[in-house]
């Protein structure tokens, strides 16, 4: 999984976190492709979940601050992903199997779709908004 600048949504904090999420998914992909120990894979997934929760909280807080109209729908999408990944963690802890490549494909597709479809809407909303939020906007946008 690679980061491309066209994934930027124009909100500095969120773009930085998205880049970090892409990096984490890439690290997980590498760990899974090298048959890393189950405990290492579980730790990597747990770290990804924890960071994702932090990112979602930041993103939802921003959406609340700017009066983003689709906040609740966006929040439900976030909650569903956390639930799906948490189920995988539970399976790992119980020693049950899961298809590693399906997980990577799922995370990659979900993240890219979410950034380019859902999160870009937040950036466009903020661009059209009368709310002054210079701390959130990337200087190059």
Sequence of secondary-structure elements? HHHH
Largest sheet: none
Do you know the CATH topology?
Four Helix Bundle (Hemerythrin (Met), subunit A)
Task: Return residue spans where pLDDT drops below 50 for at least 5 consecutive residues.
Answer: none
Number of strands: 0
Number of helices: 4
CATH superfamily: Hemerythrin-like
By secondary-structure content and strand pairing, the structural class works out as: mainly alpha
Radius of gyration: 16 Å
Shape: elongated
Compute the average pLDDT: 85
Helix content: over 70%
What's the number of structural domains?
A: 1
Report how far the terminal alpha carbons are from each other.
Answer: 24 Å
CATH architecture: Up-down Bundle
Quote the beta fraction: under 5%
CATH class: Mainly Alpha
Q: Which helices and strands, and how do they pair?
A:
Blueprint: H1 12-33, H2 38-66, H3 71-93, H4 100-128
Helix pairs in contact: 1-2, 1-4, 2-3
Task: Describe the overall structure.
- The chain is an all-alpha fold and 141 residues long.
- It has one domain (10-128): Hemerythrin-like (Four Helix Bundle (Hemerythrin (Met), subunit A)).
- The protein is built from 4 helices and no strands.
- Helix 2 runs antiparallel to helix 3.
- The radius of gyration is 16 Å and the shape is elongated.
């Amino acid at each position: 999984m690679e980061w491309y600048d066209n994934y930027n949504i124009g909100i500095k904090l969120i773009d930085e976190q998205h880049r970090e999420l892409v990096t984490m998914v890439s690290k997980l992909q590498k760990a899974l492709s090298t048959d890393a120990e189950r405990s290492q894979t579980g730790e990597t997934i747990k770290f990804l979940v924890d960071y994702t929760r932090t990112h979602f909280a930041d993103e939802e807080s921003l959406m609340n601050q700017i009066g983003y109209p689709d906040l609740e729908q966006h929040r439900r999408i976030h909650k569903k992903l956390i639930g799906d990944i948490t189920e995988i963690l539970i399976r790992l802890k119980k020693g049950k199997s899961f298809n590693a490549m399906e997980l990577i494909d799922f995370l990659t597709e979900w993240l890219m779709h979410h950034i380019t479809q859902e999160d870009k809407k937040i950036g466009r909303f903020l661009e059209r908004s009368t709310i002054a939020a210079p701390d959130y906007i990337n200087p190059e946008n």
